[in-house]
Structure formats: structure tokens, C-alpha cells
Amino acid sequence: MENLASRIDRIQPSATLEMTAKAADLKRKGLPVFNMSVGEPDLPTPQHIQQAGIFAIQNGYTRYTPGGGTHELKQSIQNKFERDNNLHYNLDEIVVSCGGKHSLYNACQVLFQHGDEVIIFSPYWVSFPDFVSVTGAKPVFVKTNANQQFEPNFQDLEKKINKNTKGIIINSPSNPTGGVWSDEAILKLLDICNNRQDIWLFSDECYEQLTYDKPFKSIASYTNHNSKIITFQSCSKTYAMTGWRIGYIGGNKVVTKAISKLQGQSTSCPNSIAQYAASKALSGDQSCVEEMRKIFLKRRDLILAKINEIPDTICQTPNGAFYVFVDFNNYLNKKTPNGKLIKNSNDLSLYILKNTGVVSVAGESFGADGYIRFSYATSEQIIIEAMDLVNKALSNLSF
Ligand code: PLP
User: What is the pLDDT of residues 225-271, one digit of tens each?
Assistant: First the structure.
């Protein structure tokens, strides 16, 4: 009997990482694999950032740093928030962590506990419910509108807010939907929160540089009453730096101080070399960001065109991130050529994987059965080949 602590039973393994492992398995067996499950740019970290990392290694930036991040990196973050987001944070209102995921995890740890409820908009990024559950708090799911960039269903939101509500997690541009909320939706939400100064608003903006139809606006910049808004950003997607593990937040200094304390007793500090490179990434030439955005925009339009070729699917144009979240409800309850019933999108995603080698992530893990997420952070050639294979495999299903 191993006697694991009960908190570990409150969380699930990451579904996206599980699909990545399945893809690696197929590859090992020598089968063709089209990995469209990944949540990271396929592009290399830009040259000048790589060079900064090498410089850091060779010039002694290889020691522990302050728990909440180096002074230099915090200054670059402060300037970045001003430059890109029209937000001013003092240095003690900024804390650096080992990726945006770590920032979100830490913030949940220092703010939520048993008895609290935290609102999450569904479909949601797989990790949000687990970040909340592990603290002992309860994730509460609010419906969204698939026809309108997955903006909140405000009736449902107002119904779900109660005296126990301690936090609301927003993620626009969204993983998995790619949805970007309108100004009206954000203002409406802020208006609701205005009456409840005890609610913390988390804005996960890790895809802030990847919007395609209008420039991104940081949620805290919509209002002067933003002392309860915490802004989460990351170098991962913006600079193709997923493996470097640098994320950061701007927000209330009591929270940032608590997070620094927690980090001081867990990871000690984020990686010193990555911090040096991240500082150069944030303060240096930003043209690489726009170049990558243009590449993703072209791929988004390509994958949408290919999905439109698949009969009976529904997919609104996602205005951000690098995912399409396709409604395959019309394929549920069909049978495979072997007579196996497709009961849910998990079955469908596995059928697609077995018959085409295309790796996707089923909507169940994002709280949306009937949907499948494809990442288009992959080459145009793979997008074309993969979607043609999916289309062909789906044509073999019948009622
Ligand atoms: N938030 C969302 C919505 C994400 O999709 C991800 C990564 O996939 C993250 C946060 C965390 O990214 P990282 O920890 O690499 O900064």
C-alpha cells in the first residue's frame, strides 16, 4: 500500500501529453505520424535568443537567482507590459516562474483553498480544473457560445457566481478553441466583477501575440479598477521558447510576494540561463514575433479551408492561438467499417489516429465532447496531407 496523499487523486494526467506519448509510440513502430496534438510552435527559438542563452552559459549566468526572477528580467517584463499591453506594474508586482503553467499553478496555490469556487469557461485548457482541484477548491464550469469566439454565456455565468466564488479564469486567445473575446464581452465580465471585489480575475494571456483579426488588448488595461486582475504571460509561444520554461505575472504585490515565497521553497528560482535569454527576447528586436504570427495566420486559413472540405463539420474562424476546435457531433454514433460504434469524440480521435496516423486531442479533455482539437503549429504540407487523410477516413464511417 503506497499511501499517496489524497491531493494527487484530485488531478488527472495531461491529455495532451498523453496523445504526444501515443504519437511517439507510433513513430517508434515506424508508422507515419502527423502530430497535430502539440501545443507548441514547430519553429526554432529565434537566433538572437539562442545566442543570448549561449552567452549566459559562457559568462557565468549559471547560479541561483532571486526566487521571483532576476532584476534585469523583471525590468524587461515591466517595459514589455508598458510597450505591448499599456499596463504599468512596479517591479514588486512582477514575478517570474518556470513557464506560464507554473505561474498559474502557483497563483492558484496562494489564493484558493477548500470551500472556494473558481469559475472556468468551458471548453477550457486541460490544466485549469486541475490547478484548482489540487488546492481543494472546486472548479465551476460556465458555458460559452461556440458561434461567437466561445465568449461566455453570461446568463450561465451570473447563475454560477455565488458567495463562495473566489476566482475566475479567462483565457483569450483560448486553448483549445482559438477564440478571442470581443471588447463587449470583456467589459461585461469586468462589470459583473466590479460588484464583487473579493473575486480574483486571472487573465491567461499566453497567446497574446497570436491574434489574427484585431490587435490583442490585455484585460487589465480595460479598467482602472484592476487591483484584483492578475495578468499571466509567457515566453513559450511568443518566442518559440516552450522548453526554456519562462512565464511571468503582473499583479497585486501581496500575491507576487506569496508566489516568490512558495517558489523559494520549491523550485528555488527559474532557470538562470533561460531568464537571461528571456530578458533579451522581451527587450530585443520583436520582428521575429510578427514573422511567426504571419506564418500561423497563413496556416490557420489553410487548415480552415481543408476542414471546410470535410462534410458535416462545423468550425468558426478562430481569431487567435494556433488551434482549430472542430465540431464533429455529426459523426458521433456512426460505425467504423469494422462495425465499432463511435460513441464520443475520444473514439473518433482514436479512430482517426489508427487509420491515418493523425494525432489530435479529443474534446472531452477540454470539457467539450463532440469536438476535436487540431493544432496547426506544423508545416503546411503536413496540414494538407493530414486533413486529406482525415477526410478520407471519415468518409468510411456510416450510420
Ligand atoms: N496557458 C495555456 C492556455 C496554454 O495553452 C499553455 C500551454 O500550452 C500555458 C498556459 C502554459 O505554457 P507555458 O507553461 O509553456 O508557458
Answer: 888 999 999 999 999 999 999 999 999 999 999 999 999 999 999 99
Residue 110's pLDDT band (cuts 50, 70, 90): very high
Mutate to test the pocket of ligand 1, among 208, 236, 275, 375 (most ligand atoms within 8 A of CB): 236
How far apart are the CA of 30 and the centre of ligand 1, in A? 30
CATH of domain 47-284: 3.40.640.10
Q: What residue's CA is closest to ligand 1, atom 12?
A: 100
Has this prediction a pTM greater than 0.85? Answer: yes
Peptide bond connecting 337 to the previous residue in cis, omega within 30 degrees of 0: no
Pocket lining for ligand 1, CB < 6 angstroms: 39, 99-101, 125, 171, 175, 204, 206, 234, 236, 242, 247
CA–CA separation, 189 and 199 (whole Å): 12
Are 87 and 218 a contacting pair, CB within 8 Å? yes
Number of Cβ within 10 Å of residue 26's Cβ equals 17
The grid coordinates listed for 237 are 509561444
Domain boundaries, the chain: 6-31+288-395, 47-284
Helix (H) and strand (E) counts for the chain? 12, 14
